[in-house]
Amino acid sequence: MSTESRLERFRRADCWPTEESLAAMLEHQLNALAAVRGGLAAMGRAVRAAAERLGDDGRLVYVGAGASGRLAVQDGVELWPTFGWPNERLLYLVAGGDRALVESREGAEDDGEGAAALIEAHRIGPADVVIGVAASGTTAFTRGALAAARARGALTIGMANNPDAPLLREAEHGVPLLTGPEFLAGSTRMAAGTAQKIALNLFSTQLMIELGRVYEGLMVHVVATNAKLVRRSRQIVQAIAGCGEEEAARAYETAGRSIPLAVLLLDGLAPDEARARLHEARGDLRRARPTPSRNH
Q: Is 182 assigned a catalytic role?
């Protein structure tokens, strides 16, 4: 596996001056960007397939072990506050369970049968999208989960950092992130992990865009859990509706702090009609707004 190979030019890095070693590490991280760029076409196909599959009640399931699993969970937990994606439609299957999020449990990654059992226990099915992430692309836990999910009709997506990785072949959509050898041989928490973090960010953000949870570059489904986010939400309403600050604030509160509903109310819709439009459009403000809209 290329991620396990040793780079001769870094053999003596432990003898280099601190700044020189840091600079070399930083430069090597650029491989992560190049790797993600190389996987964009495959990622685009995976995003479109996922958006089509999730429908009204499909779940987004993140699977991984070790650093890959922790990165996957980190991506998923941001979807509720940023895009209002329901927590009940998110599921995390990490080798070693929740404890592995804060404590390394490396042996758990070999439990492919346990992963398959989790897929069965959670009744993963045709409406669900399962994303497996593994630097090596050989991790038994991740492969076992994806194989079981695919057998139950779920859409499966695999991200791996080695060419010809089994995970890329076994998933319906394989997304290659070919970072090559690491600064520290085999330490895939470095370039491989960076590529995974970037790829997951891109994938989930574009997926939310495809699902109508972004409008004109704004997070219109942001969950306002603090004063800063309440201010931001009001500003978003103001920017989209083209109204004054106080008018936006009133509409936002009247709408129960729903940005899309507040915008529709400012468009002149009655509350019941606005809610009906949003429901029919699955929360997609662009589809729900009457045309021409108030500010166009």
A: no
Among 4, 78, 170, 210, the active-site one is 78
Active-site annotation holds for 20:
no
Phi, psi of 173 (to 5 degrees): -125, 110
- Locus of tokens 């779940």: 59
158: alpha, beta or left, given left = phi > 0 and alpha = psi -120 to 50? beta
Q: SS3 for 94? A: strand
Give the H/E segment covering residue 244: none
Q: What is the pLDDT of residue 98?
A: 87
Residue from 8, 106, 109, 246 carrying the catalytic annotation = 109
Assess whether the previous peptide bond of 292 is cis (omega < 30° from 0). yes
- Residue 46: CB atoms within 10 A of its CB come to 26
The pLDDT tens digits of the residues spanning 156-196 come to: 999 999 999 999 999 999 999 999 888 878 788 889 999 99
